[in-house]
Amino acid sequence: MNKMSRVAVPMVAKKRLVYGWYVWGLGTAFYLYQFILRASPSVMADHLMSTFMIQASSLGVLTSFYYYAYSTLQIPIGILLDKWGPNRVIHSAILVCIVGTILFALAPTFSLACIGRILIGAGASGAFLSTITLARTWLPEAKVAFAVGTTITFGKLGGILSGAPLASLIQVSSWRTSLIFLFFVGLIIALLIWTTLKNPVHTQHTLSKIPIKKKILFVFRNKDIWSIGLYGCFMYVPLSVFTDIWGVSFLMKYYCISKGVASLGIGILFIGTGFGAPLVALLSDKMKRRKPVMTLSALASFIVCSYLMFADNIPLAGGFVLLFLVGFFMTGQTLVFTVGAEIVSHNVKGVTTGFVNTIVMIGGVVFQPCVGFILDSMWDGRIQNGVPFYTLENYKIALGLIPVCMFCALITLVFMPETHPGSGRRGRVANPETDDRL
Question: Are residues 286 and 193 part of one domain?
Answer without folding.
Answer: no
